[in-house]
Write a structure and sequence with these properties.
0% helix; 122 residues
Amino acid sequence: MIEDERLGGQSWTRIYTRVGRCPQTVHSAKRFRGPTGLEEYVGYGIGMALEVTVEDEALVFRSHHYFLAFGRRRARAPRLLQPGLMQITHRDEGGGSFSFRLTLTHPLLGRLVHQLAYFVDP
């Protein structure tokens, strides 16, 4: 994680590998902006406002809404174009490890994405 002036926040890079497929790389920036005070910006004018809570000793990020930015102008994405509720949970698993759980649930189509990964600090 590093400060990224181009994205305007702390830059996060994730690389997802799958057997027999090309790796997928996702870049985003967490920024202290917007109506909730925290947002995730993925570039190309697309981002989501986040609400942060602590639940069962885990840090939980939930999408509040998605937005489109054009220079200094911003607009909430229409509900019909939003992918659904994004929830990310970071949980300390003890012994220097933590779990990362990401779920995207669409109001009509149900759960579209579910990821669970475990990480260990070296």
